[in-house]
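Hello,

Our lab assistant flagged a job as stuck in the queue for most of the afternoon. It eventually completed. Since we weren't sure the result was trustworthy after the delay, we are filing this so someone can double-check. Below is the sequence as submitted and the structure that was eventually returned. Let us know if re-running is recommended.
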Amino acid sequence: MTKRGRPSWHGRSSRRVVAALWAVCLVGLVLWALLGGPAGIDAGWWVLYAVWLLPFVVLRSMTRGVAERPVARLDEREAKLRGRYLAIGYYTALCAGFAVAVYLVALSHADPTALARGAQLLLVAMGMAAAVPTVALGWTAPDDDPEDLETA
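-- returned structure --
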């Protein structure tokens, strides 16, 4: 534990490990959706989806929820960070939604299983839109300055 009870695992290197785990699960979900069998969404995919949500929840705790908290509850520096990372999440949502739409339009005529796969990809895109601000903040934010923690 550091001063003021901040656990040492809240540091940048620990946050990056959790963010990397989130990214690995994301790649697994997309590959499973694209390369999976024609049976639709199976139980294994749902388990991986639930596992994918865990690093997001952990990162949210590690970053003190700065990317999700109302601006009124943030100081000036945190409010700027929140705005920057919410913009990243917004553009990620736009790009992911566009990619899923193109996938559905292009492949739905040729492959009847594309609808189930498209639903999987849409669920991933929505989860990405929600999690990317926190994951990006967790990856890039510097460690808290110990002097700032002492004066707070």
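-- support follow-up --
The delay was a queue issue, not a problem with the job. The result is valid. DSSP finds five helices and no strands in the chain. Residues 76-108 form the longest helix (33 residues).
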